[in-house]
Amino acid sequence: MARGFRRVDRDQQFLLPVDMREWLPDDHVVWVLLEVVEHLDVTALEARYVQGGPGRRAYDPRMLLALLIYAYSAGVRSSRQIERSCRTDVALRVICGLQVPDHTVIARFRQQHQDAVRDLFTQVLLICAKAGLGRLGIIAVDGTKISANASKKASCRRPWLQQQVDDILTRAAAEDTA
């Protein structure tokens, strides 16, 4: 047996708890995201999937939507990088339920449901902004104070959030193409 390694008996504690709810703290953003996505109307996404029949069962569209939203919010745009992160990032493993969707599945989901993903992503951002769960961007210039029309109410409106989502989706498409 290799030096420094020892055999792990079945009754010994594992690196991660068996219950996935114990993998992340209760206040982690993933739990909020999963709750919000659960309450969204995703009938447009589900309508494209055949229920039953031959072939492999499709991934849950809510899971893929939550996966894209979390990854894009974390700055990961490439479907290949999202696939790799599904193997290593605990938050993404929780979202995926230990499944690892292939990068082509992720890219095709985004391409086929681009309009629906865009609208649902904007809805999630609006809900999070109203709940005060985050900021979409901060600009600091050497401590210089600049007067601007940048109140929370002005910056968290639907058209502005829609533009942010459009920018994220455009960058994701460009990275997948590259």
Low-confidence stretches: 1-8, 138-146
Number of helices: 9
Q: For the CA atoms, what is the radius of gyration? A: 19 Å
Percentage of residues in DSSP E strands: under 5%
Describe this protein with a few key phrases.
178 residues, 54% helix, mainly alpha, disordered N terminus, 9 helices, globular
Task: Characterise this structure.
The protein contains nine helices and no strands. The protein has helices spanning 29-39, 43-46, 61-73, 79-88, 90-96, 103-112, 114-130, 152-155, 158-177. Helix 4 packs across helix 6 (103-112). The model is unreliable at 1-8 and 138-146 (pLDDT under 50).
Topology:
Layout: H1 29-39, H2 43-46, H3 61-73, H4 79-88, H5 90-96, H6 103-112, H7 114-130, H8 152-155, H9 158-177
Helix pairs in contact: 1-3, 4-5, 4-6, 7-9
